[in-house]
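Q: Given only this backbone (544 positions), what sequence would you predict?
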């Protein structure tokens, strides 16, 4: 994928001022990067081969446009987000683990089509965004080359740390400055001084030493030197010889096979690339690593400030980033907790209170980890309270819903079990006790679930067994009463029969008695008659 514009330049129709325009497509790409970002920016005078250097870093041909005329090829700032597999393995291993690299190609400085003010603004924006700033020049580091880097002096006027500060010097801004690598192209000098070889870094340091003199011109030159050393405190320098000997091939460098380059150039280019990736570090502000979303917000803040005619303020931009990141972290972490809980309840309609507590603590830990990973430490305390309050509120709602669902489940369950009790088959209280023991200890506990389980059972046990016992007692009393009534009736019926029998017997006895009495009277009468007869006979005998 070729490089695309990150910031372009538009001419205002009203006042003919140049305005920076952010490309939303580029921001979308950067914003998708969750990893930490290392931002490598290449700047320098126009038509000095910056894009060629960037293509080599990207390990691609034609990624950044390379021109062959005096016209500037790059307008504004162009970008290429490197995938890990796009970087040469020799250099990829030099990067910090979990880091994505964003390459920036800045419009050439000193173009006849741009003003000095525009150069300073674009230079300032590039410095603000980058973690490694590569300055590309040709020839050597001489007074002319240093003069062309005089924009560093202007940085103190075009960048502020806080809004309430006056203009600060380069040393104050150094804490926010990127690492600095000066690459000198088409270098033909010998790195030799005072009878021994020196490194390119020593060559740079030597060039940055103040020169003697007290005239205004000397003070200006030394101001450039001191500004560079004060602002870019981490410095390195690399030199590259002319890449090819054939003048005609200079117009085809980007498509030229590796074998066609000078061997010395290839060796120096590899050494330069190694240095670049060794020095490529994560972009940081106020100690915090910057990811894609943060960089997008920084771009917006800085560009808006420049377009408004004000000075980009690092502190203000960072506070905006921190606020946005905190709000996003809060939203995403609460969403993670909610999604996990919703997923849990989609599987388990009702949960035990202890199980829900365990899951809550687990999901709170997961969401908290995401929150602390996504938010910025500077405002983590502010959003931490909102995070915990949000989770606590949701947890209370889930607990309440779980209790209600548990109440519904257990109530329906116990009512169904009670309705299934065949009370007419229960003969005594021992059997009734067995029925309720089986219902509560086996059937109910087998399916009942949730915090309302025992409450529902207790509420039912307070009433329904007593109702059943009362009904059983009433049925028993009714049965005994019916039994007693039957016995009374049987006794009454037997008494009636016995009475009839006695009545009949009485009648019989009475008749017999009367007959006996009549016979007795008859006998008595006969006996009287007989006595009289005997008496008469006795008299008669006596008379005889």
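A: Predicted residues:
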């Amino acid at each position: 994928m070729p490089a695309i514009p990150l910031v372009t330049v538009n001419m205002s129709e009203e006042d003919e001022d140049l305005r920076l325009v952010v490309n939303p497509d580029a921001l979308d790409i950067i914003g998708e990067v969750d990893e930490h970002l290392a931002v490598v920016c290449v700047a320098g005078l126009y038509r000095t081969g910056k894009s060629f250097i960037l293509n080599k870093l990207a390990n691609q041909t034609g990624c950044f446009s390379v021109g062959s005329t005096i016209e500037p090829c790059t307008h504004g700032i162009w970008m290429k987000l490197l995938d890990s597999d796009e970087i040469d393995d020799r250099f990829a291993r030099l990067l910090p683990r979990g880091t994505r690299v964003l390459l920036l190609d800045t419009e050439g400085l000193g173009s006849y089509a741009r003003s000095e003010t525009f150069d300073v603004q674009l230079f300032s924006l590039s410095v603000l965004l980058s973690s490694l700033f590569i300055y590309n020049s040709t020839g050597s580091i001489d007074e002319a080359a240093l003069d062309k880097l005089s924009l560093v002096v202007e940085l103190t006027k075009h960048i502020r740390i806080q809004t309430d500060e006056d203009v600060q010097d380069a040393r104050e801004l150094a804490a926010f400055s990127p690492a600095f690598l000066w690459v000198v192209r088409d270098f033909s000098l010998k790195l030799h001084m005072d009878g021994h070889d020196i490194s390119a870094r020593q060559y740079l340091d030597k060039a940055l030493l103040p020169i003697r003199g007290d005239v205004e011109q000397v003070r200006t030159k030394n101001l450039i030197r001191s500004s560079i050393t004060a602002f870019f405190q981490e410095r390195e320098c690399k030199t590259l010889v002319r890449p090819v000997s054939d003048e005609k091939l200079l117009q085809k460098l980007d498509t030229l096979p590796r074998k066609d380059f000078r061997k010395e150039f290839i060796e120096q280019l590899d050494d330069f690339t190694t240095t670049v990736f060794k020095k490529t570090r994560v972009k940081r502000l106020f100690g915090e690593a910057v990811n894609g979303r943060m960089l997008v917000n920084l771009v917006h803040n800085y560009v808006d400030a420049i377009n408004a005619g004000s000075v980009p303020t690092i502190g203000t931009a960072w506070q905006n980033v921190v606020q946005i990141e905190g709000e996003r972290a809060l939203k995403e972490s609460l969403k993670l907790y909610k999604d996990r809980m919703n997923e849990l309840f989609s599987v388990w309609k009702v949960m035990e209170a202890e199980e829900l507590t365990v899951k809550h603590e687990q999901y709170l830990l997961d969401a908290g980890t995401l929150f602390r990973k996504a938010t910025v430490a500077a405002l983590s305390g502010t959003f931490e309270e909102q995070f915990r309050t949000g989770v606590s509120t949701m947890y209370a709602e889930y607990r309440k819903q779980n209790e209600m669902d548990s109440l519904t489940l257990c109530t329906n369950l116990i009512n169904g079990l009670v309705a299934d009790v065949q009370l007419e088959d229960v003969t005594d209280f021992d059997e009734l006790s067995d029925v309720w023991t089986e219902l509560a200890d086996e059937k109910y506990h087998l399916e009942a679930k949730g915090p309302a389980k025992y409450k529902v059972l207790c509420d039912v046990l307070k009433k329904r067994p007593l109702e059943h016992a009362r009904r059983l007692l009433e049925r028993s009393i009714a049965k005994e009463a019916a039994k007693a009534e039957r016995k009374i009736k049987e006794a009454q019926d037997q008494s009636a029969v016995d009475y009839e029998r006695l009545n009949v017997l009485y009648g019989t006895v009475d008749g017999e008695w009367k007959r006996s009495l009549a016979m007795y009277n008859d006998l008595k009468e006969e006996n009287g008659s007989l006595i009289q007869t005997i008496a008469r006979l006795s008299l008669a005998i006596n008379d005889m």
